[in-house]
Design a protein that fits this description.
The N and C termini lie far apart (about 75 Å). The protein is an alpha+beta fold. It is built from ten helices and ten strands. The N terminus is likely disordered. A hairpin with a 4-residue loop joins strand 6 and strand 7.
């Protein structure tokens, strides 16, 4: 009866209000309170929606969007490969910043800087070289990457002195920074050259096992420090290629996490979580000093859950496109 009186075009809040007024005697006190709570919620949602509509920014035209990208990539010209890398994610950044022109411009500028650096890494990439000892480790679990989209390999033959040396040099290169990229790791005598060679050898196994003949490995290592003791917010699950990131040519990710202190026996060990197969498969692996994780950069989400300070060392297998330097 209340619905008929209010009419079919009434809003949900109006309908609920009418029912509450005309049928107050039919409901218990508890039911009346539930209706009033629902009514308040609907009114708040309606108010929020109206405010959102008033504050919504008009979407930029294609020409305006292109203009913003051209400005962000300067001095690179329009139709450069940097332009072609940034343009596909420009609208996503517009939505992410809520159409705020200043925030949008800054976000695009940061994206261009990052993309420029990553494309330079693609240019400097080389063919990965296999290592016999790494081949043996790969052959111990050859199908896991194919079945789970992620895998790990324990290089137990690595002496503790090697891992300590890698940690010492990497921390020295990090200094007070949270993260840094170390270039030219393929050069003879580089302090991290052997670690880079091991990651590159795993990249070579991926190339062989999946017949990705054009797969190359970057000649740089990304170093970062993850320390829960300083109150760092744990990042959510992300991908190494996709989302708001321009296409960085990454196909396979190679990562090791080295604990920088002894983990307490009272807490669970640090873990690396993965989501693959469109989120249908979830896996969790313990972090160990001699363990290297291999996963697909585009389709696998990962998240680190540290229980102590960790040193992260990463490299990537990439596939160059026609516009990239050969």
């Amino acid at each position: 009866a209340a619905l008929r009186k209010l009419g079919r075009t009434s809003t949900a809040a109006q309908v609920l209000s009418g029912i509450a007024k005309e049928n107050r005697k039919l409901y218990s006190k508890c039911e009346q309170q539930q209706i009033e709570t629902m009514l308040l919620t609907l009114k708040n949602e309606s108010s929020s929606s109206a405010t959102s509509t008033l504050n919504a920014k008009a979407l930029p035209t294609p020409a305006e969007l292109q203009g913003h990208v051209v400005k962000a990539i300067r001095p690179d010209p329009k139709d450069s490969r940097l332009y072609m890398a940034v343009l596909p994610v420009a609208m996503s950044w517009w939505q992410e910043t809520g159409g705020d022109l200043k925030e949008f411009s800054n976000a695009l500028a940061r994206t261009a800087i990052s993309a420029r650096s990553e494309l330079a890494a693609v240019d400097a990439s080389v063919r990965p070289r296999p290592i016999a000892a790494v081949r043996e480790v790969w052959d111990s679990r050859p199908d896991q990457l194919r079945e789970d989209a992620t895998s790990y390999f324990d290089l137990k033959q690595l002496p503790p002195e090697f891992i300590s040396s890698v940690s010492k040099h990497a921390l020295g290169m990090l200094g007070a920074a949270k993260s840094v990229t170390v270039k030219d790791c393929n050069q003879e005598g580089h302090p991290l050259g052997m670690m880079w060679a091991i990651l590159g050898a795993l990249c070579a196994e991926v190339s062989r096992a999946f017949a990705i003949t054009e797969l190359r490995v970057v000649t740089e290592l990304a170093l970062s420090r993850i320390d829960p003791a300083i109150g760092e917010k744990v990042a959510g699950a992300v991908v190494d290629n996709g989302g708001l990131l321009p296409d960085n040519r990454r196909e396979v990710s190679l990562r090791t996490l080295i604990p920088l202190e002894s983990e307490s026996s009272n807490v669970a060990p640090s873990q690396l979580l993965f989501k693959a197969k469109d989120g249908e498969k979830e896996m969790s692996f313990e972090v160990r000093p001699d363990r290297i994780f291999v996963f697909w950069s585009r389709s696998t989400l990962y998240q680190c859950l540290p229980s102590c300070a960790l040193l992260s060392i990463s490299a990537w297998g990439v596939v160059q496109q026609k516009v990239d330097k050969r």
